[in-house]
Write a structure and sequence with these properties.
The chain is mainly alpha-helical. Helices cover about 45% and strands about 0% of the residues. Helix 2 crosses helix 3.
């Protein structure tokens, strides 16, 4: 049985490519839930990694895409 798309990489270490994408998506003002779906990671993992790297993803409730 395949893992849901949103957590396919949950147990895997973060790659340099994923970290670049995380920075890109955060800069694009996407909410952590959308970033998680695009990276195949749970939302808490996205938030934790962003916090570790000092990537701002706050406020969490802002609309995406600068709306």
């Amino acid at each position: 049985m395949a893992l849901p798309q949103s957590i396919r990489n949950a147990a895997e270490p973060w790659t340099a490519k994923e970290l670049r994408k995380l920075k890109e998506l955060a800069a694009d003002n996407l909410p952590p839930s959308v970033i998680g779906m695009r990276l195949g990671r749970p939302e808490p993992a996205v938030l934790n990694k962003a916090l570790q790297l000092g990537i701002p993803i706050l406020p969490l409730n802002r609309p995406p895409y600068g709306v």
